[in-house]
């Protein structure tokens, strides 16, 4: 009934410190050792997720930049969708970003490019050690960019989103991964599309897929999987959008790991923080 697992990272598989806890890592390793394919589906950069996967210690498929990149176990890139270079060159302009407080980022194939120093962001990348490179993004040619990311106060990002809607309409895929992270990809990109690509490669039906998510960029992922689950800490807008998707525990209580142990019949030999073995 359950043959493959697809999971988001931040707010879902990772704890409140944006790291893997031992209980979650042990659970995923146990299932991978049983031969269950693991698919990580996230808005994060491929190099960042590869570092987290190495900490996790499993051979996983990596869906990154919200579906703009897919890598097979062994780090072979098997799927790629780039933004139009002309669109990228426009997206980094200050009038599109709106407030000067909004931080603009580009996800290139092997680099995270940013328009200013923002050391506070590095806390999100403790497991992988992934770091940004500062540059004047207006000098970038726009080639080979998977994602444009705006980081800022939610109120500032509302204006950014309105600017994008006014200028690009539905020609881009614009979504939130966190309330302070507005992400832009080409229109034919989503986690769900990338998930279908991986499942076809594995010859596994979507009805056999278990999926976990917590935010608006997980909508298509959860709609694609036959057995979707939403975190208790999910974005309220996601709950409204997908009211019939079951809610499980919180990410800071290893909710995904506990649900997986129930679904796959694993006894909780190792208790997570704040939990006792079943």
Could you walk me through the main structural features you see in this protein, from its secondary elements to its overall organization?
The chain is of the alpha/beta class. The chain has two domains: 4-80 and 189-264, HAD superfamily/HAD-like (Rossmann fold), CATH 3.40.50; 85-186, 2-Layer Sandwich (Hypothetical Protein, Haloacid Dehalogenase-like Hydrolase, Chain: A, domain 2). Helix content is 32%, strand content 22%. It has helices at residues 9-13, 22-33, 46-56, 85-91, 94-97, 154-168, 191-202, 219-224, 236-241, 255-264, and strands at residues 4-7, 38-41, 61-64, 69-72, 76-80, 103-108, 112-114, 133-134, 145-151, 172-178, 181-186, 209-213, 227-230. The strands form two sheets. It has a seven-stranded mixed sheet with strand order 5-4-3-2-1-12-13, with helices on both faces. It has a six-stranded mixed sheet with strand order 8-7-6-9-11-10, with helices on one face. A hairpin with a 2-residue loop joins strand 10 (172-178) and strand 11 (181-186). The radius of gyration is 18 Å and the shape is globular. 47% of the residues are buried. The mean pLDDT is 94. GO terms for molecular function: metal ion binding; phosphatase activity. This is Cof-like hydrolase. InterPro entries: Cof, HAD-like_sf, HAD-SF_hydro_IIB, HAD_sf. It comes from Caballeronia fortuita.
């Amino acid at each position: 009934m359950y043959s493959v697992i697809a999971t988001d990272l931040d707010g879902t598989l990772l704890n409140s410190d944006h790291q893997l806890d031992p209980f979650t890592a042990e659970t995923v390793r146990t299932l991978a050792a049983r031969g269950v394919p693991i698919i990580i589906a996230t808005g994060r950069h491929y190099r960042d997720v590869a570092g987290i996967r190495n900490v996790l210690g499993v051979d996983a498929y990596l869906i990154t930049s919200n579906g703009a990149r897919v890598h097979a176990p062994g780090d072979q890139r098997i799927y790629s969708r780039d933004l139009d270079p002309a669109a990228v060159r426009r997206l980094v302009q200050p009038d599109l970003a709106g407030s000067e407080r909004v931080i603009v980022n580009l996800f290139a194939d092997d680099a995270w490019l940013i328009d200013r120093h923002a050391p506070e962001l590095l806390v999100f990348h403790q497991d992988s050690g992934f770091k940004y490179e500062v540059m004047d993004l207006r000098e970038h040619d726009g080639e080979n960019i998977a994602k444009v990311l705006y980081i800022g106060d939610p109120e500032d990002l509302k204006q950014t989103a309105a600017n994008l809607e006014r200028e690009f309409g539905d020609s881009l895929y614009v979504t939130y991964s966190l309330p302070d992270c507005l992400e832009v990809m080409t229109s034919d990109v989503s986690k769900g599309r990338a998930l279908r690509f991986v499942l076809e490669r594995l010859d596994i039906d979507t009805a056999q897929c278990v999926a976990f998510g917590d935010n608006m960029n997980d909508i298509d992922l959860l709609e694609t999987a036959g057995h979707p689950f939403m975190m208790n800490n999910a974005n309220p807008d996601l709950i409204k959008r997908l009211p019939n998707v079951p809610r499980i525990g919180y990410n800071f209580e290893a909710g995904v790991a506990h649900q997986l142990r129930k679904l796959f019949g694993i006894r909780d030999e190792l208790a997570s923080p704040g939990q006792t073995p079943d």
